[in-house]
């Protein structure tokens, strides 16, 4: 199955990483999990065919990862899904779109520096323009004006940049309330937090309240917008855990390949 062919399927995997702020803890949580659960590592099989599948899955800690996935889904059905449904009912759709736009806009500096690190000045320029336009004309990011004038949102983060450098991801990990990750991406998302300006909001002047509102509302919107995809996934997939793992890995590799192959000229199209 080619995960790159369907944006809706990509959104399914993104539902398990809705809180980007939590990714700052992913690497530490993953290391602690592995240290505590080393006995739950799956040994490599001896059969050549099984060994090939084992290497392709890149999931030596599958027993503990499945336990973490089950914990996440228990919380989803008991708490997150009902709260997400209430959020959808209570918050008008235009407001929810604005919340999503704010989250994307305030991440643009991290996208910009990640694109610079990947050696992609055109992508970095697009991210810079998105931040500048949406923070001004878009009223602090509530409206995606940049998208309307041709600067479409794109995904780049430090984990993807490390991937373009050839840094291996390491074993697949599932961290509760963070979702699919690996050691490289856990470190990358920690770096991303240092590049996100909202994390430096000072105390006072009600700005700290805005910071909390930004994080809570963004997390709620992420879960709420993913409910349909998660429900369909559970209904249609024989093994949702394996599907999510494969989809997430394919999506991350697809994003790395997209960045590496983006050789557009630095000068925007309208200038030529």
Structural account:
This protein has 272 residues and is an all-alpha fold. It has one domain (52-261). The protein is 63% helix and 2% strand. It contains twelve helices and two strands. It has helices spanning 7-14, 26-36, 48-57, 62-90, 93-117, 121-136, 145-148, 158-164, 183-194, 207-224, 227-236, 240-261, and strands spanning 173-175, 179-181. It has a two-stranded antiparallel sheet. Strand 1 and strand 2 form a beta hairpin. The longest helix has 29 residues, at 62-90. The chain is globular. The model is unreliable at 1-28 (pLDDT under 50). Keywords: Lipoprotein, Signal.
Quick structural overview:
The chain has helices at residues 7-14, 26-36, 48-57, 62-90, 93-117, 121-136, 145-148, 158-164, 183-194, 207-224, 227-236, 240-261, and strands at residues 173-175, 179-181.
């Amino acid at each position: 199955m080619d995960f790159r062919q369907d944006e809706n399927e990509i959104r399914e995997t993104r539902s398990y990483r809705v809180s980007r702020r939590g990714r700052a803890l992913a690497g530490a949580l993953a290391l602690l999990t592995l240290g505590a659960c080393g006995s739950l590592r799956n040994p490599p099989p001896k059969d050549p065919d099984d060994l090939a599948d084992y290497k392709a899955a890149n999931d030596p800690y599958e027993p503990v990862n499945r336990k973490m996935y089950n914990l996440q889904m228990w919380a989803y059905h008991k708490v997150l899904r009902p709260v997400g449904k209430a959020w959808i009912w209570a918050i008008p759709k235009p407001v929810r779109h604005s919340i999503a736009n704010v989250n994307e806009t305030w991440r643009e500096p991290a996208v910009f520096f990640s694109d610079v690190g990947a050696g992609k000045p055109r992508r970095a320029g697009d991210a810079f323009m998105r931040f500048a336009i949406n923070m001004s004309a878009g009223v602090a990011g509530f409206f995606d004006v940049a998208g309307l004038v041709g600067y479409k949102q794109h995904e780049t983060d430090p984990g993807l940049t490390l991937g373009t450098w050839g840094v291996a991801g390491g074993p697949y990990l599932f961290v509760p309330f963070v979702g699919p990750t690996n050691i490289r991406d856990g470190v990358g998302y920690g770096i991303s937090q240092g590049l996100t300006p909202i994390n430096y909001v000072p105390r006072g002047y009600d700005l700290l309240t805005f910071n909390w509102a930004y994080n809570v509302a963004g997390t709620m919107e992420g879960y709420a917008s993913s409910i349909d995809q998660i429900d369909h996934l559970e209904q249609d997939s024989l093994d949702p855990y394996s599907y999510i793992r494969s989809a997430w890995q394919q999506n991350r590799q697809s994003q790395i390949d997209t960045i590496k192959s983006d050789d557009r000229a630095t000068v925007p199209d309208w200038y030529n």
